[in-house]
């Protein structure tokens, strides 16, 4: 199996009579993640690499709505699942690594 080095993949799809679609995929441990409050105040969540930034904030950059809370909960639950999967796979891979060569 061939593995690539760390990278960020960005695509833009434009179809006639359709909303343009932007995709950003981060395949790197060089990802920086941060959250905080901007003016008004409003919360933000940001994912950054040297190649791309993705920012998430409230609907229309306005007050926090019930839909924004639902989205924040989805992000939290997905991040918790991602963490659990990474921890489990890292443990499995470390256990299978040859002696002296932990993953």
Provide the fold topology.
Elements lengths: L6 E7 L7 E7 L4 E7 L3 E7 L4 E5 L8 H31 L7
Antiparallel strand pairs: 1-2, 3-4, 4-5
Radius of gyration from the CA trace? Answer: 18 Å
Largest sheet: 3 strands, antiparallel
Strand content: 25-35%
What is the spatial order of strands in the main beta sheet? Answer: 3-4-5
Category by helix and strand content: alpha+beta
Considering DSSP H and I runs of 4 or more, what fraction of the residues is helical? Answer: 25-40%
> In angstroms, what separates the terminal alpha carbons?
16 Å
Q: Using DSSP, what is the number of strands?
A: 5
**Series of H and E elements:** EEEEEH
Shape: extended
Count of helical regions: 1
| Whole-number mean pLDDT | 91
In the predicted model, the low-confidence regions spanning at least 5 consecutive residues are none
Could you explain how this protein is built, in words?
A hairpin with a 4-residue loop joins strand 4 and strand 5 (53-57). This protein has one helix at residues 66-96, and strands at residues 7-13, 21-27, 32-38, 42-48, 53-57. It is an alpha+beta fold. The strands form two sheets. Strands 3-4-5 form a three-stranded antiparallel beta sheet, with no helix packed on it. A two-stranded antiparallel ribbon has the order 1-2.
Structure keywords:
single chain, 103 residues, alpha+beta, three-stranded antiparallel β-sheet, two-stranded antiparallel ribbon, 1 helix, 30% helix
């Amino acid at each position: 199996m061939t593995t690539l080095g760390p990278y960020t993949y960005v695509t833009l799809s434009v179809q006639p009579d359709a909303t343009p679609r932007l995709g950003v995929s981060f395949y790197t441990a060089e990802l920086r993640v941060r959250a905080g409050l901007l003016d008004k105040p409003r919360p933000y969540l940001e994912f950054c690499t040297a190649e791309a930034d993705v920012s998430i904030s409230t609907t229309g950059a306005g007050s926090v709505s019930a839909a924004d809370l639902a989205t924040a909960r989805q992000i939290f639950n997905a991040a918790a699942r991602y963490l659990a999967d990474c921890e489990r796979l890292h443990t499995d891979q470390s256990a299978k690594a040859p002696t002296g060569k932990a993953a």
